[in-house]
Amino acid sequence: MTSWQAGIALSLLIASVSAPAHATLGGKASTIENDRIRMVGRKSAQMVQGEVTSHEVTLENGTVTRQLTRADGTVFAVSWQGPVRPNLNQLFGTSYFKRFQSDNAPVGRIRMRRALASTHSDFVVRTGGHAGAFWGFAFLPKAAPAGFSAQSLHAGAQ
Fold it and tell me: What are the protein's UniProt keywords (predicted)?
């Protein structure tokens, strides 16, 4: 390897290591503070209930997001409610967000007004609302702790 190839390789390594991590679905709770900063929000609350910790952040626009983590710190669910949808790519992570987009792509030239959703064995999303009052949640069923119910997400998001 030449010196310039080694320099490029080192630059790419540094860039990948220094890129900010985000607490996306399946990610770690230790990066939730990075999300709060990127979404320009303020931490509202952190509540522990059994094996689940809820990290609540209120965004500048009034939208409230919650990221739920297991005892090992893995984010297994997110929810939101407020006047504006949050950055779902950031909350879901790129791979889950692309699946969500693909599941909700318009067919042909017809655009339907409907709630957006995705249902897979490893990834579930439900959204709804209207201008000024949006809600939604996403979770990883296989990553959820025993006894967790999606009903709690739905109730908390509306």
Answer: Signal
